[in-house]
Amino acid sequence: MKSIICAAVFVLLVAAPTWSEEVADLQGPYPAAGDFQVAKLYSGPTRLPDFKGRDKDFRLFRTRIRDGLKEGPNFAGEYRVIQYGCGTGCSDVVIASNRTGQAFNFPLGGEENAYLSLQFSLQSRLMAAQWYDFDKDSCIIDFYDWQAGKARLVKRGRVGTNETCYNEISDNLNKADVSQQPAPVRLPAE
Question: Which of 66, 114, 110 is nearest to 89 (CA)?
Fold first, then answer.
């Protein structure tokens, strides 16, 4: 009986096909930062995470997180985005509240989301994240709405292959806009 269960687990975990979401080309209109404005900007004292309690999962990166928080909020009114390297083309992201000190994981990062680049502002909850998917040879842009320590995916789309991810997010969005426009009509010369 144990061998049958082991064989079934092997098939499910190793031999079974993987299902992955196909990502379509990014289509406009894109979410706008102004549509996700924060109600107020936090200007009080910075609180640091509780690395012995609530935020213990982040204690290995406590120096980077503390140093980041000391620079003040830079995202969604009260948060600090802290991005640090984990190898070639690899980075992780922690988002921490300057108001409460609580640290949160961002849903992208690590080797699965190579060449991760972020675009965000203090006045908005919207974050654009550009990353490379090795398995699909695709440069992806995701838009997230950040509220109460959670990122909700608003829109996702493919903007090109690996080389596209070396461009700035805004450049790739501009190129995607142009590629979606109809070709100009040329009038015959008189």
Answer: 114
**DSSP category for residue 54:** T
Angstrom distance (rounded) from CA 138 to CA 175: 15
Mean pLDDT on 20-40: 88
Query: Which residue has 């107020």 as its token pair?
Result: 40
pLDDT at res. 1: 47
Tell me the C-alpha distance between 64 and 100, whole Å.
Answer: 17
Query: Tens digits of per-residue pLDDT, 97-150?
Result: 999 999 999 999 999 999 999 999 999 999 999 999 999 999 999 999 999 999
Cis peptide before 182 (omega within 30 of 0): no
| Reduced 3-state DSSP string for 103-166 | EEECCCCCHHHEEEEEECCCCECEEEEEEEEHHHCEEEEEEEEEECCEEEEEEEEEEECHHHHH
